[in-house]
Design goal:
Helix content is 47%, strand content 15%. The chain is built from 16 helices and 16 strands. Strand 12, helix 9 and strand 13 form a beta-alpha-beta unit. Helix 2 packs across helix 3, helix 5 packs antiparallel against helix 6 and helix 11 packs across helix 12. The radius of gyration is 26 Å and the shape is elongated. The model has no long low-confidence stretch (mean pLDDT 95). Bound molecules: 5'-O-[(L-methionyl)-sulphamoyl]adenosine (MSP). 5'-O-[(L-methionyl)-sulphamoyl]adenosine binds next to helix 1, helix 7 and strand 12.
Length: 501
């Protein structure tokens, strides 16, 4: 069935430090999909935010001699600044300390408690503060946290639990048969590591500290930060900037897409579906990407290999960073970030294939037609063939993004620019003496440059904006990639990306 609405989420990030390019990668993916769906004339709800409770943040604020809320508020400002600089167009930025969210979490906790999906008992196990995660003894690696390898602490306390064990069969079937988690190999990893070995009910309360949402009618407890955080995806619908209400989640024509990094698959593909099922919400599509690796390691403050996206944007511009992140990481696998490959792709693709194409065509239009786009129709064999190839690529782009194939999308966009460059080489307009033919070539090129920049807009909104300004077109959609621009004056040149050393 054709989808008419799309809900897109990113994980909500911990405000314990500035965000790095790994976080920028997740959010860029989400933004690219959001802009893409809008160009398909779909109604999109794109949410992101900050995950502000939990022991780690409470300890961090103490170290800084600050109230936790003040401490996180400063960092959240930086998140918002980054999203602005990276051209992230979200509808809702949710903070888990917002009253709307707190009320929603308490309401849902109570509902699930009343349904006996949540119960009270004793918990004994290991806790990793850094990942805010519980582990059983067998899950530890050499006695340490299996995710970050840091020390864990043993504790026993009264706790509330979410029933998970009871859903073992259901979740196994769901993951195997319903295609909710992509890439597929992550399904086997999850089934292998957590479900078949030791699926335990999840402790969802904490007693020893206060920085969290109180459990209704039991003020000695706060709700475990992950249970609180996952529910942000539902709370966001109550915000005034939400473009549509929660009832749309279950509509058959609504697509729900959730982006996450591979280390938080267990929460999203195991516990979250159980919560959703019990609240009668349909299953989302979970897209789990790999990590960005710098100097051979996952970025971390202690290794000193953290790359600040704001610095990269300052130096290279947001379009370049967005383009590079999508191009360099093969979705689902880890990808290496380095300034050498960034420079290589910048000069090799953005300058040579894309910016030069635009500038060459604009200058030829100035030279041969006094900057006024000529009027023509398709008659030449070369134009017919190129047009056919380009229309094929346009269709493929729409197809591959039905399956969230970001790498193919970007490759096809590059191929589109190569086709156009090839067309110039083939038709050699600088040698053309027939006025009508020359008109056709330049008219065709300008019109297809327009199409190229509609296709590229989700990835590089700024460059597209510059091209649309130059061509004086305001409205864009994938339904209308060829708009027959003619008889209008456009600039003599347009340099989108300048060569760098
Ligand atoms: N607060 C939780 C998520 C709760 S969602 C209900 C959390 N926050 S986090 O700040 O640690 O961010 C995690 C997300 O950041 C990862 O899932 C991933 O999307 C992104 N990344 C963090 N480090 C990364 C890399 N080195 N590379 C790519 N993405 C990475 O977990």
């Amino acid at each position: 069935m054709k989808k008419t609405k799309t809900i897109i989420t990113t994980p909500i990030y911990y405000p314990n430090a500035k965000l790095h390019i790994g976080h920028a990668y997740t959010t860029t993916l989400a933004d690219v999909l959001s802009r893409f769906r809008k160009l398909e004339n779909k109604q999109v709800f794109f949410m992101t935010g900050s995950d502000e409770h939990g022991q780690k943040l409470s300890d961090k604020a103490k170290e800084n001699n600050q109230e936790v809320y003040d401490y996180v508020t400063d960092i959240v400002k930086n998140f918002k600044l980054l999203w602005e600089k990276l051209d992230i167009e979200y509808d809702v930025f949710i903070r888990t300390t917002d009253q709307t969210h707190k009320d929603n979490v308490q309401k849902i906790f109570q509902m699930l408690f009343d349904k006996n999906l949540i119960y009270k008992d004793y918990y004994e196990g290991f806790y990793c503060k850094s990942d805010e995660s519980y582990f059983t003894k067998t899950q530890l690696e050499e006695g340490n946290c299996p995710i970050c390898k840091r020390e864990v602490s043993l504790f026993k306390e009264e706790s509330y639990f979410l029933r998970v064990k009871d859903f073992k069969e259901w979740i196994t079937k769901l993951l195997k048969e319903e295609d909710i988690l992509f890439p597929q190999f992550r399904v086997n990893e999850l089934l292998g590591s957590f479900i078949e070995n030791d699926l335990e009910d999840l402790a969802i309360s904490r007693k020893d500290f206060k920085w969290g949402i109180e459990i209704p009618n039991d003020e000695n407890f706060v709700i475990y930060v992950w249970f609180d955080a996952l529910l942000n995806y539902l709370s966001s619908f109550a915000y005034s900037s939400a473009p549509f209400g929660i009832e749309s989640w279950n509509e058959e024509t609504t697509e729900v897409v959730q982006f996450l990094g591979k280390e938080i698959i267990r929460f999203h593909a195991l516990y979250w579906p159980i919560i959703l099922k019990n609240l009668n919400y349909k299953m989302p599509k979970l897209l789990a990407h790999g990590w960005l690796i710098v100097d051979g390691e996952k970025m971390s403050k202690s290794l000193g290999n953290v790359i600040d996206p704001l610095e990269v944007i300052e130096k290279w511009g947001s379009d370049t960073l967005r383009f590079y992140l999508l191009k360099t990481v093969s979705f689902g696998s880890d990808g290496k970030f380095s300034e050498e490959t960034l420079l290589r792709d910048y000069n090799g693709i953005l300058v040579n294939k894309i910016s030069n194409l635009v500038n060459r065509v604009f200058s030829m239009n100035a030279k041969y037609f006094n900057s006024k786009i000529p009027e023509a129709t398709i008659t030449l064999e070369e134009t017919k063939n190129t047009n056919k190839n380009l229309i094929l690529i346009e269709k493929k782009i729409i197809d591959v993004m039905e399956n969230y194939d970001f790498n193919n999308y970007i490759d096809l966009v590059i191929k589109y620019s190569e086709e156009l460059n090839g067309y110039i080489d083939l038709t050699t307009p600088w040698k053309e003496t027939n006025e009508e033919k020359l008109k056709e070539i330049i008219w065709f090129l300008i019109n297809k440059i327009y199409s190229l920049f509609v296709l590229i807009k989700p990835i590089m909104p700024k460059a597209s904006f510059q091209v649309f300004e130059a061509l004086n077109v305001q409205k864009h959609s994938f339904d209308n990639l060829f708009i027959d621009l003619k008889n209008i004056e456009i600039p003599k040149e347009l340099i989108l990306f300048e060569r760098r050393k």
